[in-house]
Amino acid sequence: MRVLLIEDEPHLREQIGQHLRNQQLTVDMSGDGEEGLFLGSEYPYDVAVIDLGLPKLSGIEVIKQLREKNITFPILILTARGRWQDKVEGLEAGADDYLVKPFHFEELLARLNALSRRAAGWSHATMRCGPIDLNPSSQQVAVDGVTVELTAFEYRILHYLMLHAGEVISKTELTDHIYEQDQDRDSNVIEVFVKRLRNKLDPDKTLTPIETLRGRGYRLTLPRE
Q1: Between 59-68 and 33-42, two packed helices, what is the crossing angle to 10 degrees?
Q2: Can you give the chain as a three-state secondary structure string?
Q3: Contacts of 126 (CB under 8 A, 6+ apart)
Q4: Which residues contact 9 (CB under 8 A, 6 or more apart)?
Q5: What pLDDT, in 10s, does the model give residues 47-63?
Q6: Which domains does the chain have, with CATH numbers?
Q7: How many Å apart are CA 149 and CA 139, to the nearest integer?
Q8: Tens digit of pLDDT for each residue in 153-175?
Q9: Residue 40 and residue 151: Cα distance in Å, rounded?
Q10: Distance between CA atoms of residues 46 and 115, nearest Å
Q11: In Å, how far are 55, 62, 139, 190, 203 from 36, measured between CA atoms?
């Protein structure tokens, strides 16, 4: 899952970013509204966290302009303003949820996971496709109840494919969602990660969970449950 974080307080921004990265999320960060709006307009995100009190362009204005551009990823407002009027204004601007500072990182993560699941049509905390279970909160993956150990990139790929189970996902799209903006990217490496993921999920070659569509990308073939 790729997250856009727009927060002007440097220490808090780094704290949140590191915490989310520790949970295997891909995070792009900005300290002002103008840059945040540019990132949100130019790059594909699964969810955004936007502070209201931003320099250059307010969080409310960032949200409004993103929605005016028909950018639909879920947005969570992060604010020190506790007045109900501020919350209502943010939601009416196009945000999907809000969290008031100070907050617990666990609650922030739970809300982001819930927003991304719902946006992709999932209603349960644990996602299941066939015999594969993935819990975004604990980052645990199991096949037929047996835990499977994945690397960070393997986990990110599986998470994204399960969020969009049944859809064809190109290598470019996968690359965009597992790497941060300033990381070196090589879409050919995706093939290596997918091969390793297949071997771990289906060592006996009985499930065929990930289909390759030549020239188009990959598709998780197992049905949602």
Answers
A1: 20
A2: CEEEEECCCHHHHHHHHHHHHHCCCEEEEECCHHHHHHHHHHCCCCEEEEECCCCCCCHHHHHHHHHHCCCCCCEEEEECCCCHHHHHHHHHHCCCEEEECCCCHHHHHHHHHHHHHHHCCCCCCCEEECCEEEECCCCEEEECCEECCCCHHHHHHHHHHHHCCCCCECHHHHHHHHCCCCCCCCHHHHHHHHHHHHHHHCCCCCCCCEEEECCCEEEECCCEC
A3: 133, 134, 135
A4: 51
A5: 999 999 899 999 999 99
A6: 2-119 (3.40.50.2300), 127-220 (1.10.10.10)
A7: 10
A8: 899 999 999 999 999 999 888 88
A9: 28
A10: 9
A11: 11, 8, 28, 28, 43
Please state whether the predicted TM-score (pTM) of the whole model is above 0.85.
Answer: no
Residue with tokens 């250059």: 56
Query: What's the half-sphere exposure (Cβ side, CA atoms, 13 Å) at 180?
Result: 16
